[in-house]
Amino acid sequence: MRRLALALTLILPAGVQAQDAGSSAWDRIYAVASHPRCTNCHVGESGRPAWDDLGYAKDSVHGMNIVAGESRIGAESIPCRVCHISAEGANNVPHAAPQIDEAWRLPPVELAWRGKSSVEVCQQLRHPEANDGFDMAELAEHVRTSAFVNYGFKPGAGRNAAPGTTEELAEDLEIWAAAGTPCVGD
Ligand code: HEC
Ligand code: HEC
Question: Which of 12, 140, 164, 167 lies 20 to 30 Å from 174, alpha-carbon distance?
């Protein structure tokens, strides 16, 4: 394999190589963006956070009838912070409400990824208007500094972490951006 890759490196024009690297980077980005540690928050208009991959039935929504509402923080009913305290915690008690140093809330509706295919999320993320107005450099910066993203990679006891690290995800976003943000079907 390695010899084949080397041979291809010698034959293929640089633009094609960059695009290949961009597509592989995207596949790794999607493996994270489609992970339940991210998609349980990145839900759409229903405003219902999910409880996938926590040992409940497949496609479970948050117990106790929790709805985030238009505020995305549950201001209309029970605020998220009643249980998800805004202070860094070790999160080492399985099934206790996760707590981080940030107001626990759902992202804006445009950032809904749960149940979406690789192509759909790819198209969404490369358009700043579909990701909260962020350009690619800012997205990579968000990933490096967001307490939410950090939680997804280090969710504490009893929860599967998203694959990789925040730094690897940020670097993949940069590789994907440098390759012109390719999506399948371009
Ligand atoms: C607790 C809920 C929550 C979890 C879990 C979560 N996010 Fe988010 N995410 C948000 C919120 C809220 C925003 C909107 C930006 C903000 O307010 O910081 C956001 C925005 C984003 C953005 C867009 C950049 C921006 O600032 O708008 C990206 C990219 C992102 N999240 C990636 C991830 C990834 C990758 C994971 C999993 C490893 C993840 N998020 C897990 C709540 C969450
Ligand atoms: C009454 C307490 C309570 C309230 C209020 C609450 N939660 Fe939770 N939440 C929990 C508990 C407990 C868990 C852990 C479930 C488990 O791991 O089995 C949890 C887990 C989650 C998860 C899953 C995290 C993961 O790693 O998959 C998300 C997403 C979530 N809550 C979002 C919200 C949002 C958004 C709000 C506000 C709209 C909210 N929660 C309000 C108790 C609460």
Answer: 12
